[in-house]
C-alpha cells in the first residue's frame, strides 16, 4: 500500500514516539554512585540522581500536551512530601512539570529549525520546609527532527551564458539548494538535483547541481536563449521527500561562426559629374549573422578601373562600406566605373574556418551623369607682372577658359569688382586680355589679387572663377629723406671736429640691389664756418662742428641743409634741413637748458622776486573780492525801524498761518480790507504771475491807520529794493489785494462774519484751493456739525 505525503509524515511521527517511550527508562532518575553530592557542613553524601538526555519529536500536532519524560528522586517515598520544580529555557512557557509526580510535558508545538535543544534545571524540594532534598541539576531536552522543510534555492532564479557551438558537457552554471532539516539525522537534508525543463539541450549533475550542455552545435542564430527548470528533492530523491524548484535562463553567447555575405552580387549607382571631392557615392553592407565584435568587418576595393578615383571605408556604427570620391569626375572623359569590393571579418575564429572563407565580394558599377558645368580656366592661378610706370591701357596678360561640356559654349570674361574696388584693371570680354585702367603705384599696393569671372554665353548662370596675381614692379620714383625727425643739439663748450649727430635716410622704393644713399651739404652750406658733414658710406652721415665758442646769446638755433641722393636710375635727390640748437651742457656733454631767454633773468629780477610779486598780487585780489562780497550783502532792514515796536508775522512760502486763533499779534480787523486804494509801484526786476483784478464790492470795516500805513510802506520798499527776497516770500493773513475775484481767502474773517456767501466756486480753481473748497463748500454745515 502506498502512503501519501501527509500519511508518511504521520507514520514517521508515530515511529519517533515509539522510540521515545521505549527509552523512557533511560530518561528516568536512577540511583548511581558515580558522582557525589556535597551538602553544607562536613558530612558527605552521595548524589541521589543522574540526568540523561530527553528527546522530543518536533511538530507534534496532538491536542494533549506531549509527554517528555519523568523526574524521580530516591528520597521520594511516594507520600507526597517531595515537590519537583523546573527552571531554565522554556520552563513554564513551553515545558511544565507535575510537582507531585515529576512528569514533564511540552505544551506547545516545537520546531527544531527554530531551536534544536533546550537546557533546563530540575530540583526536588521538601514540601514542608521548601528546602532542597537533592542538589539542582541541569539536563537537556533535544528536539528530534522530522522532514518538514523542503529544499530552497536561496540564489535563484539564475542567469548564465555559454558560447554557442560548445561541445557536450560544457559547464554552464552550478545551482545550490539548502534544506533546513537536520543533516545529521536521517536523509531529511540530503538533496538530489534533476532537470524538469530544458532537455535535451542541458543536463544537471544530481549531487553537485552543475548544469552542462547536452547537445553539440547549438546555434545562437537559430535560438539564443533557453529556460531551464531545476528541481532539488530531499530524502535522496525517494518517494515522500520534499522538493523545491528554480529557473535558470541560459543565453548562448556569440562566436564568429558566420562569414559576411553581400545580399546582391552587383550594385549600380548614378552620380553627377559635378559631385564634389570627398562626397559619398554609395553605401553597401554585407550581412553577418553574428553580433558585436564578431560582426565587424573591413571593406576594400580589390579590382576595377576606379581604384584612384574612389575609395571605400567602413562606418564603425553601422558596419557599412562607404564609397567616396577622391578625384573630380568628368563625364566627357569617362562615363562609368566598375569596382570589385571585398568584405571580410576582422577577427576570424580558426575553429570555424572549415565552414568556408570569412569574406565575400560584390561588383559596384558607377554611372557618371552629364551636367552643365561652368567654364574652366586653363590654370588655377595666373601670375603677372607690370611696371608701375606702365601707361594706362597697356596689356598686362591674358587668361583663358573653356566650356568643358560637349556643347562648348562661348565664354565671356569680366572682373569681380569686389576684388578690384579702385578699378585699376580692365579685361576684354571676348579675348580675356587684361589691361591697366589707372596709373599704378607700387608703394600704395605692391600686389593686386583679382578674380576673373568666365560665364557661358548660352547659360550665364554657369560662372567659372579664375585667379590672377598682378605684381607691380618698382621704379625709382621716390626721393630719399631723413629716416626720422632729428632733435640735434650742440653744446656751448663743444670742440671743433666733434660729432654732434648721425643721420640716416629712407626711400619708399625697393631697388633689386638695395639702397645706397649719398650725403652732402648743399652748395650754400658748404662754406659755412659752423658745421661740416661726413658721408660714412653706409647710408649714414655724421655732422661735425667746425669751431668752438657757440653762444646762445648770439645765436640759439642753426639750420643745416643736407643733400641726399639715391642710387636709382635715374637717381633722385632731396634736400632735408637739420635743426641744431645751442644748449648749456654739463661736464659730460649732457644738455641742461637750451632756452636763450634764460640769460635775460639775471639782468632784471630774480626768480624769488618774481614769486614775491606774484604773491602780493594774489593777496590784493583776495582782499578786493572780500570787500565786494561784504558790501553786496549789506542792506537796509526790511521789517521796521528802531523807533517802532510793531510785531508782524512773517512765514515762508507754502506754510500755513495760525488760522483763526492767531489774533494776539495785532488787531485783525485792520487787516481785513482797505478803504483807501493806493497806486502800487511794481518791481522792475520781477513780473508777478497773478494780475490783481478789481472787486465789485467792498465790506465797510473800521480803519486802522497804523497797520495800514506800515503794511503799505513795507510793501513799497520790498517792491523797489532789488536786493530783497522774491516778492512771493512775504505773506499777509487777510489781504489778497484790491479787486481779487476770490476776495479774501483768509479764515480770520469767519470769526465775526455772518456772511452766507457761496464758496462752491473754489472747487473749480484747481488742486491748490482744494482744502479751502472742502472747508467752505457745500459741506460746510456737516463739517462743523
Automatic annotation (TrEMBL):
Membrane-spanning intervals of the chain: 599-628
GO biological processes: adherens junction organization; calcium-dependent cell-cell adhesion via plasma membrane cell adhesion molecules; cell migration; cell morphogenesis; cell-cell adhesion mediated by cadherin; cell-cell junction assembly; homophilic cell adhesion via plasma membrane adhesion molecules
Keywords noted in UniProt: Calcium, Cell adhesion, Cell membrane, Glycoprotein, Membrane, Metal-binding, Repeat, Signal, Transmembrane, Transmembrane helix
Signal peptide (residue range): 1-27
Cell membrane among keywords: yes
InterPro entries for the chain: Cadherin, Cadherin-like_dom, Cadherin-like_sf, Cadherin_CS, Cadherin_Y-type_LIR, Catenin-bd_sf
Alphabetized Pfam families for the sequence: CADH_Y-type_LIR, Cadherin
Ligase among keywords: no
Protein name per UniProt: Cadherin 7
Main location: membrane
GO cellular component: adherens junction; catenin complex
Cell compartments where the protein resides: Cell membrane
Main function: Cadherins are calcium-dependent cell adhesion proteins.
One GO MF term attached to the UniProt entry: beta-catenin binding
Membrane topology: Single-pass type I membrane protein
Amino acid at each position: 500500500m502506498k502512503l501519501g505525503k501527509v500519511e508518511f509524515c504521520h507514520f514517521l511521527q508515530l515511529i519517533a514516539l515509539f522510540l521515545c517511550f521505549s527509552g523512557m527508562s533511560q530518561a528516568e532518575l536512577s540511583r548511581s554512585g558515580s558522582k557525589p553530592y556535597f551538602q553544607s557542613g562536613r558530612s558527605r553524601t552521595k548524589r541521589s540522581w543522574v540526568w540523561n538526555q530527553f528527546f522530543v519529536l518536533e511538530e507534534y500536532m496532538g491536542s494533549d500536551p506531549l509527554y517528555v519524560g519523568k523526574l524521580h528522586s530516591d528520597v521520594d517515598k511516594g507520600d507526597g512530601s517531595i515537590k519537583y520544580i523546573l527552571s531554565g529555557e522554556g520552563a513554564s512557557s513551553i515545558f511544565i512539570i507535575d510537582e507531585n509526580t515529576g512528569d514533564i510535558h511540552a505544551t506547545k508545538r516545537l520546531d527544531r529549525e527554530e531551536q534544536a535543544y533546550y537546557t533546563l534545571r530540575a530540583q526536588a524540594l521538601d514540601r514542608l520546609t521548601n528546602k532542597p532534598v537533592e542538589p539542582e541539576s541541569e539536563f537537556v531536552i533535544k528536539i528530534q527532527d522530522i522532514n518538514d522543510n523542503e529544499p530552497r534555492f536561496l540564489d535563484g532564479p539564475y542567469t548564465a551564458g555559454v558560447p554557442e557551438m560548445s561541445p557536450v558537457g560544457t559547464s554552464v552554471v552550478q545551482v545550490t539548494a539548502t534544506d533546513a532539516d537536520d543533516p545529521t539525522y536521517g536523509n531529511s537534508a540530503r538533496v538530489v538535483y534533476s532537470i524538469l525543463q530544458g532537455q535535451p539541450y542541458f543536463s544537471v549533475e544530481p549531487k553537485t547541481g552543475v548544469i552542462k550542455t547536452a547537445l553539440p552545435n547549438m546555434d545562437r542564430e537559430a535560438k539564443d536563449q533557453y529556460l531551464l527548470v531545476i528541481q532539488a528533492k530531499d530524502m535522496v530523491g525517494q518517494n515522500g521527500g520534499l522538493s523545491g524548484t528554480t529557473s535558470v535562463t541560459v543565453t548562448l553567447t556569440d562566436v564568429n561562426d558566420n562569414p559576411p555575405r553581400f545580399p546582391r552580387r552587383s550594385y549600380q549607382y548614378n552620380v553627377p559629374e559635378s559631385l564634389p571631392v570627398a562626397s559619398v557615392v554609395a553605401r553597401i553592407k554585407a550581412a553577418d549573422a553574428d553580433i558585436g565584435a564578431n560582426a565587424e568587418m573591413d571593406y576594400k576595393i580589390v579590382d576595377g578601373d576606379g581604384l584612384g578615383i574612389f575609395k571605400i571605408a567602413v562606418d564603425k556604427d553601422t558596419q557599412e562600406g562607404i564609397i567616396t570620391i577622391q578625384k573630380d569626375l568628368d563625364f566627357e572623359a569617362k562615363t562609368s566605373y566598375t569596382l570589385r569590393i571585398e568584405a571580410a571579418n576582422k577577427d576570424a575564429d580558426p575553429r570555424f574556418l572549415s565552414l568556408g572563407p570569412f569574406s565575400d565580394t560584390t561588383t559596384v558599377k558607377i554611372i557618371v551623369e552629364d551636367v552643365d558645368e561652368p567654364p574652366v580656366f586653363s590654370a588655377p592661378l595666373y601670375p603677372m607682372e607690370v611696371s608701375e610706370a606702365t601707361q594706362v591701357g597697356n596689356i598686362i596678360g591674358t587668361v583663358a577658359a573653356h566650356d568643358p561640356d560637349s556643347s562648348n559654349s562661348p565664354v565671356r570674361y569680366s572682373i569681380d569688382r569686389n576684388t578690384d574696388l579702385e578699378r585699376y584693371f580692365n579685361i576684354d570680354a571676348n579675348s580675356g586680355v587684361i589691361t591697366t585702367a589707372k596709373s599704378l603705384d607700387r608703394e600704395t599696393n605692391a600686389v593686386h589679387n583679382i578674380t576673373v569671372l568666365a560665364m557661358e554665353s548660352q547659360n550665364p548662370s554657369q560662372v567659372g572663377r579664375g585667379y590672377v596675381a598682378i605684381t607691380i614692379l618698382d621704379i625709382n620714383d621716390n626721393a630719399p629723406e631723413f629716416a626720422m625727425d632729428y632733435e640735434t643739439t650742440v653744446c656751448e663748450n663743444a670742440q671743433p671736429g666733434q660729432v654732434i649727430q648721425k643721420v640716416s635716410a629712407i626711400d619708399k622704393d625697393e631697388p633689386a640691389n638695395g639702397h645706397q644713399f649719398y650725403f652732402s651739404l648743399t652748395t650754400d652750406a658748404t662754406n659755412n664756418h659752423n658745421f661740416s658733414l661726413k658721408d660714412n658710406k653706409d647710408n649714414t652721415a655724421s655732422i661735425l662742428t667746425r669751431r668752438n665758442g657757440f653762444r646762445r646769446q648770439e645765436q640759439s638755433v642753426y639750420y643745416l641743409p643736407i643733400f641726399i641722393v639715391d642710387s636709382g636710375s635715374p637717381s633722385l635727390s632731396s634736400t632735408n634741413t637739420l635743426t641744431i640748437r645751442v644748449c648749456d651742457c654739463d661736464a659730460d656733454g649732457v644738455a641742461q637748458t637750451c632756452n636763450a631767454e634764460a640769460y635775460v633773468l639775471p639782468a632784471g629780477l630774480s626768480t624769488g622776486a618774481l614769486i614775491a610779486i606774484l604773491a602780493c598780487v594774489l593777496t590784493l585780489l583776495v582782499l578786493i573780492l572780500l570787500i565786494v562780497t561784504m558790501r553786496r550783502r549789506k542792506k537796509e532792514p526790511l521789517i521796521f525801524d528802531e523807533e517802532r515796536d510793531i510785531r508782524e508775522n512773517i512765514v515762508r512760502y507754502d506754510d500755513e498761518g495760525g488760522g483763526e486763533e492767531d489774533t494776539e499779534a495785532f488787531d485783525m480787523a485792520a487787516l481785513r480790507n482797505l478803504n483807501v486804494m493806493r497806486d502800487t509801484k511794481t518791481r522792475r526786476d520781477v513780473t508777478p504771475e497773478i494780475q490783481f483784478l478789481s472787486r465789485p464790492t467792498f465790506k465797510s470795516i473800521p480803519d486802522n491807520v497804523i497797520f495800514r500805513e506800515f503794511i503799505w510802506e513795507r510793501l513799497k520798499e520790498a517792491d523797489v529794493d532789488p536786493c530783497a527776497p522774491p516778492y512771493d516770500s512775504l505773506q499777509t493773513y487777510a489781504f489778497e489785494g484790491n479787486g481779487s475775484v476770490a476776495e479774501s481767502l483768509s479764515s480770520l474773517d469767519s470769526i465775526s462774519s455772518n456772511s452766507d456767501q457761496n464758496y462752491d466756486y473754489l472747487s473749480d480753481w484747481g488742486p491748490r484751493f482744494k482744502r479751502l473748497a472742502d472747508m467752505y463748500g457745500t459741506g460746510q454745515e456737516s463739517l462743523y456739525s
